[in-house]
Amino acid sequence: MNDQEKYLFDLRGYLVVNNVLTADQIEDLSDRLEGQRKNRDSQQENKKPEIFGSDRTVIRDESAPAWTAPSLLEWGGTYIDLIDLPTIAPYLETLLGTGYRLDHDYLKIENETSGHTLYLHGGGQGAGGPRDIVGPTDGGQCFYRYNNGKFYNGLVAVAFELNDVSPESGGFACVPGSHKMNFPLPEDWRISKSQATVHQCVDRVTANAGDAIIFTEACSHGTVPWEAGGERRTIFYKYCPHAVTWGACFYNADNYGELTESQRAILTPPSAFGPHEHTAGIWKRAQAEQAELHRLRREVAELRAEQSDRLGTSADS
Ligand SMILES: O=C(O)CCC(=O)C(=O)O
């Protein structure tokens, strides 16, 4: 992260980094997404807006273990590479310090039918509250500061764009500089149902396919309603300092195939120690317990099936 980028991030609370993804990576991410969309369309009504992955606040599948939730990481390929992308890692290390962790991930699609409303959230001191989707209280989760030559952020989002986004289309927007605000966002600027009513203090940020918008959740931000043809398909990976958590669930690194040591470290659940041998030992045990739970559930299901077959057979004879 060079000096100009540090200046801009401190000034505005966000940064656009061009060409962080190669053409091959964009293609792989798109292909895997479109495969999932086809699958989903055949399984259920075409729900709008389309959101994949999980912000890890709800459990939709009752058979899923409590502390892991669905994730884009299950799609494999480049979705795994995004955990620790060489073009992004130096920014995260500067903004979050060493030992940062991936907290949650999701992907959303905007188009003319997705019906989004700009709902500004986050913003300096005192974010949170019943009207702010960053959380029901300001638990200090939206912090931003620069002190003694270091950045401190409570959550840093990396938004990877799979399509070009022009200023008049819609997409990511924020109130630049609001990560340092001492006053709450004026309520009547928070919600805009069309582009015509978006307040002039809001920056609409443009980006091309393969670019990443890196922003601090402490900046008031949201999605400007999409008023153009085509689609915006954006992947969000959100990172915390190692001792912080936003999600109520964590990643089980055993669920996503072969990972590098560094990727596994970034998936470590939160603690003051970060990816340290003591915490690693504790989570290894939790992962073994989760594997055992899956095995036992399978065994019980098989025994129940055998029993009901036997009962069915003896009732017939
Ligand atoms: O659509 C966007 O880029 C904004 C997403 C957003 O509001 C968020 O990730 O909290």
Question: What does this protein look like?
Answer:
The protein starts with a helix and ends with a helix. The chain is built from 6 helices and 13 strands. It has helices at 3-12, 23-43, 78-81, 89-96, 261-266, 277-316; strands at residues 14-17, 50-54, 101-110, 118-119, 144-147, 150-153, 156-161, 171-174, 191-192, 203-204, 212-216, 221-224, 232-240. The protein is of the alpha+beta class and 317 residues long. The model has no long low-confidence stretch (mean pLDDT 89). The strands form 4 sheets. It has a 6-stranded antiparallel sheet with strand order 1-11-7-13-3-2. A 3-stranded antiparallel sheet has the order 10-8-12, with no helix packed on it. Strands 4-9 form a two-stranded antiparallel sheet. It folds into 2 domains: 3-275, Jelly Rolls; 276-317. Strand 5 and strand 6 (150-153) form a beta hairpin. The site of 2-oxoglutaric acid has 9 residues, from strand 7, strand 8, strand 12 and strand 13.
List the helices and strands and how they pair.
Elements: H1 3-12, E1 14-17, H2 23-43, E2 50-54, H3 78-81, H4 89-96, E3 101-110, E4 118-119, E5 144-147, E6 150-153, E7 156-161, E8 171-174, E9 191-192, E10 203-204, E11 212-216, E12 221-224, E13 232-240, H5 261-266, H6 277-316
Antiparallel strand pairs: 1-11, 2-3, 3-13, 4-9, 5-6, 7-11, 7-13, 8-10, 8-12
The chain binds 2-oxoglutaric acid.
